[in-house]
Amino acid sequence: MAPPAASQRYPSPSQPSGKSEVTDLKSQLRQLAGSRAPGVDDSKRDLFKKVISYMTIGIDVSSVFGEMVMCSATSDIVLKKMCYLYVGNYAKGNPDLSLLTINFLQRDCKDQDPMIRGLALRSLCSLRVPNLVEYLVGPLGSGLKDNNSYVRTIAVTGVLKLYHISASTCIDADFPATLKSLMLHDSDAQVVANCLSALQEIWSLEVSHSEEACREKESLLSKPVIYYFLNRIKEFNEWAQCLILELAVKYVPSDSNDIFDIMNLLEDRLQHANGAVVLATVKVFLQLTLSMTDVHQQVYERIKSPLLTLVSSGSPEQSYAILSHLHLLVVRAPFIFASDYKHFYCQYNEPSYVKKLKLEMLTAIANESNTYEIVTELCEYAANVDIAIARESIRAVGKIALQQYDVNAIVDRLLQFLEMEKDYVTAETLVLVKDLLRKYPQWSHDCISVVGGISSKNIQEPKAKSALIWMLGEYAQDMSDAPYVLENLIENWEEEHSAEVRLHLLTAAMKCFFKRPPETQRALGIALAAGMADFHQDVHDRALFYYRVLQYDVHVAERVVSPSKQAVSVFADTQSSEIKDRIFDEFNSLSVIYQKPSYMFTDKEHRGPFEFSDEVGNIPITPEASGDIVPAQQFEANDKDLLLSTDEKDDNKGVSITGSAYTAPSYDNSNISSQMQELAISGSATSAATPQSSFDFDDIFGLGLSTAPARTPSPPLLKLNPRAALDPGAFQQKWRQLPISLTQECSVNPQGIAALTVPQSLIKHMQSHSIHCIASGGQSPNFKFFFFAQKESEPSSNYLTECVINSSSAKAQIKVKADEQSTSQAFATVFETALSEFGMP
Amino acid sequence: MCGSFSFATDRAEVPKGSTETFFRKVKFWKEDGNAEAPPIFNVDGVNYFHVKVVGLYFVATTRVNVSPSLVLELLQRIARVIKDYLGVLNEDSFRKNFVLVYELLDEVIDFGYVQTTSTEVLKSYVFNEPILIAPARLQPIDPAAIFTQGAKRMPGTAVTKSVLANDPGGRRREEIFVDIIEKISVTFSSNGYILTSEIDGTIQMKSYLSGNPEICLALNEDLNIGRGGGVSVYDYRSSSGSGVILDDCNFHESVQLDSFDTDRTLSLVPPDGEFPVMNYRMTQEFRPPFHVNTLIEEAGRLKAEVIIKIRAEFPSDIIANTIAVQMPLPNYTSRASFELEHDAVGQKTDFKETSKMLEWSLKKASLEFSSNITKEAGPVSMTFTIPMYNVSKLQVKYLQIAKKSSSYNPYRWVRYVTQANSYVART
């Protein structure tokens, strides 16, 4: 019997302080122990209850142990149960007591009443005293053979408990084999179910040291075993059904008939009222049909309705779990759900975590046919009392606008938001309008006229302010008072706390200056002066850079800062498709709720039973290994841009395109130049700071130059191709084909470990040594990387490496596979050298 | 809210102090702008699951990447089993019966694996007797209060009897309750049209029959299932057609569906305790019990007039109770005044200064009434309960209990109730 966790609470003054009451109880129990008077069991019960209630509130009642055991020599099962609860709590910490307890429990394991046999056995196995495991083997052995099914179910779980206390004792007693035969022959469904869960756990843990366990584990997935379970699935209770369905997911069907047989067998499970059963069934269906596109699609159609019913019939919490799974499916196959959009409308009394999911789903399924209705509905939420949801709804409208071809109506709605005059609505909308303009510059006219009417004073949020400032700079020629609004903002430079906003102010002032020099000149001067004096490094650097590039040549400055732009066609998705696939593979698990693959939030031993993640077929693919051979660095850069969602990137993108497409008002160049001179004069206040900064700058540069050669590794024996390329598919294939030519363990220096907070740091480092990462994963302390490299002279000679780093032990395990095995030692040396330099300055 | 009862039924893999971690997290949840903690979250590698049932938190923790639905269903089921045994679920009944609760949990979960959640099966393993809370000590629960607690699933109406309880005479009263509970969601547009409407229904059963007799439950013969599910046969039917068309439904595991396709009867051997026989969902058009009309008119620069008209659309012999109308007003609203119709009795109006919420509650409603309120605002929402009335027209035609003897005639209670889920009129 499981003990209650002792509460942390201290007894309050009104509660018994302990001592005297416990002594009192002790003497009362002693009196009753020997008594055979009628009604004595009732008084005992009351006393036992008192003892247990003291125990739960944290009073130490271990001193009455002997009396409790004595009193339990009775046939009253209620007393027995309370006593087991009690001894379970105290025996663990106290070896003397545990021996006493074991004797008492062993005796009860032979009781006439099967209830008592079962309970005693369960308490015995729950004691978790490692040096007393030999006392468990006997009772467990007879428990497994007991003619009462209750005792057998407990014994089966007891075997698993024993395995966790002492694996060798459990294996030596040959319990797994006994469980296997029980699993296949016992008449009681719960005994069978417990055997299945125990065996799954035991064999999964044994796999690493025993070939046999590996075979046994495989055999659970064999056709006869799977069908044995599936054919009698209705005999099991709903929880055991989930267990069986989870097993069936792992089964590899032999042909399409096999697939249809299983699906027909499980069809009615979709009508179960228990969401867990339905989701487990859905997972089986989805996994089985992955390779059959049309059937897979039919499965989506089939599961839609049952899932929607579950969403609306359970508690909000249950709905949430189901809805998270629907969310995953909707995002994967939006077209299948396009006509069901009304089901994802928010209800006013739903918790915000449900509403948020629904908004994302509505965004995903919006298409030509339903956009109007969906956007109309979303606009209603924008006025919602729940501000977080109102914001999300506006963002959703914006996202839909960005993914649609016909945006007229949506733009109108967005502009109407601006008229609502609610601060947060305006803020969210501004950010969206900015993104829209980047994608659909043709809308600038309509948007700008509305945006121009917004007073910058009402906007406080940095993101929104930045968006407004960006538009002021970008469309300065269309907004009559743009220079003055900017000037106003620049004059309040000191009060502007957000560096992001200040950066945008600098850029906007520049852009505005190119378009309307006379009006902006003063503002730009102030902005540059303030920027160069700014304590924030980025702001300071940007101001300095602008100042210099203006000094160098105004036209160059214009080409750099305000080139003509190409409209953004697609905004990058935040999650790579590999991650999404990975989450889909982990359907019906927490991965779906957190929208992350399991390796991101849980360590390996807890990923659930039956995790085959060691084979290379399941390389944990991280974003940097997306599709082609994007070097990790580059991908990360993209990601960063996305996160910032600002526009420096495309501000600079056009540089190479040419400045000729530029269509600013035709101020003649001499005019600008003369303005420049004035600017230089008016900026004289800043000149004092300038030489100092430029000195710093040169210094940094010089330093960079002098250290750079030192950092390049001394020429290794083996020359690797710095631009080697290999796609992940080819890598996987090669990894499967090639034998391991070398396994090595080496240590990683402490600086390296310190730098390894994220896998990316190592990936970059190795790349500088011409060793490229194809996939990586894991979390502190365990990281896993797959690298590849190519001989510079022969591109066909590849080296594939698996590198597992444990940051707490500072050790790295390397497995090398090579086309040219004779050179693998040379490669390993290069690899090790590179690794040893990781984190070194 | 409640003190914590923690049960180390699992495998000691979760650190001590997780109870504190949980409460701290839930109480001060502020992530991504949401004030409400989601039912599942992860702190330091430990996953916390919780469901809230009548103000009590049922929490589970694990480090394993488990099926979230399984854990949440289980917690919900545990709450139900405990209620079946204690009769009433509240902090007080928990305190008085903690040994019984331990006993139950011990049999429900062993070493992290669910053994059984059947009230029936558990009866043979559980030996403590519940200490029942005297009815007098129960707070007088307004029937509607149960319905409007926010939880979507209704607790079993007025039945607060433990499955282990006997009547004062020592004899068990043979009875069975069948409740058809429909939660309806309707959204009216600002001009009174119905934008969306849905019925989520449950046929809930609670049996106190001894000897597990088989039961037959006959539903409407013209019941059809599967609308929009590819079969377009019924699509041409208008809503006034005689058939009841469910979009979809699911069943409790004890239900035998052998004759369901032919004569729409469900047969089952009801296990002890409360359980849903069938859940169903319907989007077929139906006549909403109340029609809500809202009109907002500017009446001067700093003043506006809101007229809310609510018209009951059900027969006058049916009485709805505890109707409440809520409407959020803008933040800058300083004052609201109300005008009710002259003959309005038992109505209360209130303007909640802090939440800027307008509230109007009615004890009974059978006909039309309207009210004038001052100042503009957000959607009008309504909550209500209408006993002995259901909008879907789904019916239990008869309830047959396999007879043990000619004198065996247990009480059968078939009750209907309609309840607002999300009943909103936009302005």
UniProtKB/TrEMBL annotation, chain A:
It is found in: Endomembrane system. It holds the Pfam family Adaptin_N. Residues 718-836 form the Beta-adaptin appendage C-terminal subdomain domain. Keywords: Membrane, Protein transport, Transport. Residues 9-25 have a biased composition (Polar residues). It comes from Brassica cretica (Mustard). Residues 1-25 are annotated as: Disordered. Belongs to the adaptor complexes large subunit family. Its main location: membrane. This is Beta-adaptin-like protein. Subunit of clathrin-associated adaptor protein complex that plays a role in protein sorting in the late-Golgi/trans-Golgi network (TGN) and/or endosomes. The AP complexes mediate both the recruitment of clathrin to membranes and the recognition of sorting signals within the cytosolic tails of transmembrane cargo molecules. Adaptor protein complexes are heterotetramers composed of two large adaptins (beta-type subunit and alpha-type or delta-type or epsilon-type or gamma-type subunit), a medium adaptin (mu-type subunit) and a small adaptin (sigma-type subunit). It comes from the Eukaryota.
From TrEMBL, chain B:
Keywords: Membrane, Protein transport, Transport. This is MHD domain-containing protein. Belongs to the adaptor complexes medium subunit family. Its main location: membrane. Gene3D superfamilies: 3.30.450.60, Mu homology domain, subdomain B (2.60.40.1170). It is found in: Endomembrane system. CDD domains: AP-4_Mu4_Cterm, AP4_Mu_N. It comes from the Eukaryota. InterPro entries: Adaptor_comp_med_subunit, AP2_Mu_C_sf, AP_mu_sigma_su, Clathrin_mu, Longin-like_dom_sf, MHD. The lineage of its organism: Eukaryota, Viridiplantae, Streptophyta, Embryophyta, Tracheophyta. SUPFAM superfamilies: Second domain of Mu2 adaptin subunit (ap50) of ap2 adaptor (SSF49447), SNARE-like (SSF64356). It comes from Brassica cretica (Mustard).
